[in-house]
Amino acid sequence: MRPCNEYLDAGGKQMDLLPNSAPLATKLRNTLIRYHGIGESEWRVAKRTKDATVWRKPSEEFNGYLYKAQGVVEDVTNRIVDHIRPGPYRLDWDSLMTTMDIMETFEENCCVMRYTTAGQLWNIIAPREFVDFSYTTSYEDGLLTCGISLDYGENEKNAVDKGASWC
């Protein structure tokens, strides 16, 4: 692993995306725990299937929604985690994600990733490129995971629009 403040783009040029990953990881962990503690009455069911439920609520921090999902998957925990964390398994199940590159790994639970999503609605919604700091942590009897966009300036690709995400 490289020091937390050094990144290389695809051409080998050094990039400074994060001055230090530890404070951001701590902030995201605290945010996730706070979100996890939001009362059930504040969430509305967005989708329910036999094995999973997804809830949403308007965010007080940004223009959009917070989502939480809960489901039971009978498998070895580490195999499940491999499908949730950024990595090659994500492309197997996420049909909107077209490319993914782990730019930097800090610890097992956090990394910087670049990914693109497919266009939607006959490309009315253009393909998007994201660079996110991704964080996953064990909590109580499950996992909490979040991605927050990083400003990557000149390193964005011209072929797609720049996207933004927050947890």
Please tell me about this protein's structure.
The protein has three helices and ten strands. It has 167 residues and is an alpha+beta fold. The strands form three sheets. Strands 6, 7, 8, 9 and 10 form a five-stranded mixed beta sheet that branches. A three-stranded antiparallel beta sheet has the order 3-4-5, with no helix packed on it. The model is unreliable at 1-14 and 154-161 (pLDDT under 50).
Keywords:
167 residues, alpha+beta, 3-stranded antiparallel β-sheet, 10 strands, 18% helix, disordered N terminus
**Roughly how many Å is the radius of gyration?**
17 Å
Q: Which class best fits the helix and strand makeup?
A: alpha+beta
Shape: globular
- Which whole number gives the mean pLDDT? 77
Helix content: 10-25%
Summary, kept brief:
With 167 residues, the protein is an alpha+beta fold. It has helices at residues 21-36, 77-84, 88-93; strands spanning 7-8, 14-15, 44-48, 52-58, 65-71, 97-107, 110-117, 128-139, 142-149, 161-162.
Q: Mind sketching the topology for me?
A:
Layout: E1 7-8, E2 14-15, H1 21-36, E3 44-48, E4 52-58, E5 65-71, H2 77-84, H3 88-93, E6 97-107, E7 110-117, E8 128-139, E9 142-149, E10 161-162
Parallel strand pairs: 8-10
Antiparallel strand pairs: 1-2, 3-4, 4-5, 6-7, 7-8, 8-9
